[in-house]
Amino acid sequence: MFASSSRGSAVFDHFAWSVLATPVLVLVIAWLLVDRLRPDLAARVFAWSAIAAAVASTVNLAAFALKALAELPSVATWGGWSYQRVVADTAHVPWVSWLSLVWLVAVVVLGARTWRRHRADLRAVAVDCPTDDGLVLVPDARIAAFAVPGSPGHIVVTSGLRDLLDDRQFDAVVAHERAHLDGGHHRLVWLARLAAVANPVLRPVARQVEYLVERAADEVAAVAIGDREQVGRAIGHAALAASAAGSARPAGSLMALGATPGIVPRRVAALFAPGRDGGRALWTSVLLPLLAVGTVVWTGECVYDLFELLHLAGWDGP
Predict the structure, then answer these.
(1) Could you report the per-residue pLDDT of 214-241, keeping only the tens digit for each?
(2) Cβ pair 108, 58 in contact under 8 A
(3) DSSP string of 86-107, one letter each residue
(4) Which residues is 147 bridged to in the sheet?
(5) Which of 211, 200, 176 is closest to 33 using CA atoms?
């Protein structure tokens, strides 16, 4: 903690645990559980645990960044505390506060850039939806289908994809995209991507969430049309055609065809395998939330210790 120089080794513990160790643990646990839980449950657990870990990491960075500023003599004079006392509290790891400040600035800049790109992507795929069922067929030879979130959301399918698939396969693709909208999958993907911006260690977890929402939508589509293999064939057929034609995924969309090479084969293989409910591993779904809660509580102590340090250094408070 910040409060006592006699326990100076504990200062770095906040940074080491919440900024470094917890994201790594989230990554490892997510890797172990990705195929053991139901896709819809796993996507939610991974996304919310990642964002909780990212928030805790960012708050810790902010606390140490404030400490870096508090070490400046001019700031200490303005605030009425001893900068020597603040510096001494982390004398054994003097770099951690300034690294945190640089890292925090990078998170803010990248976060703002990601938000602007996200809004631009949504505007790029927005189209008028005159139909009651929320399905828009656009004249375009490219092979594409995607869900556009909104109030209400809608599904866009190109004529190229519609002509490629038979009616049953087309129904599978539409059911898949509707599952994205009904499940709020865009929110989970967005949360996971924000977490990855805050802490790069969480980038693989964000990719796992993207995979899991596709798998969850596949399972919903399989139930809707009553044939898992038919959904797998539709996905594989469309993906191969899109790859051969060089069709690009529209920015910001959630596509039935998948976003990353390697995702489609995994999805198709899962659909051709017997369905699993993930019930036997359900208890493991609490591991990530418990870890997330623990790091949030630990972060609260970090913030408390910062204020205690400033008081010990002579600050009288606001």
Answers:
(1) 999 999 999 988 888 888 888 888 888 7
(2) no
(3) HHHHTTTSTHHHHHHHHHHHHH
(4) 155, 254
(5) 211
* Tokens (6 digits) for 3: 């409060």
76 phi/psi in degrees, rounded to 5:
-65, -40
pLDDT of the residue at 131: 63
Which residue, 139, 119, 137, is CA-closest to 129? 137
The CA distance from 161 to 201, in Å, is 37
- Measured in residues, the chain has a length of 318
Q: What are phi and psi of 31, to 5 degrees?
A: -60, -40
Query: Taking the CB of residue 44, how many other CB atoms lie within 10 A of it?
Result: 23
3-state secondary structure of 82: coil
Beta bridge mates, 137: 157
CB 125 within 8 A of CB 140: no
Cα 35 from Cα 190, distance rounded (Å): 21
The span from the CA of 188 to the CA of 202, in Å, is 14
Under a CB-based contact definition with an 8 Å cutoff, are residues 149 and 167 in contact?
A: no
Task: Tell me the pLDDT tens digit for each residue of 18-72.
Answer: 999 999 999 999 999 988 889 999 999 999 999 999 999 999 999 999 999 999 9
Average pLDDT of the chain? 84
- Helix segments in the chain, DSSP class H: 11-14, 22-33, 39-70, 73-79, 83-89, 95-125, 159-164, 167-182, 185-198, 203-225, 228-245, 263-272, 287-312
| Pairing label, strands 135-138, 154-158 | parallel
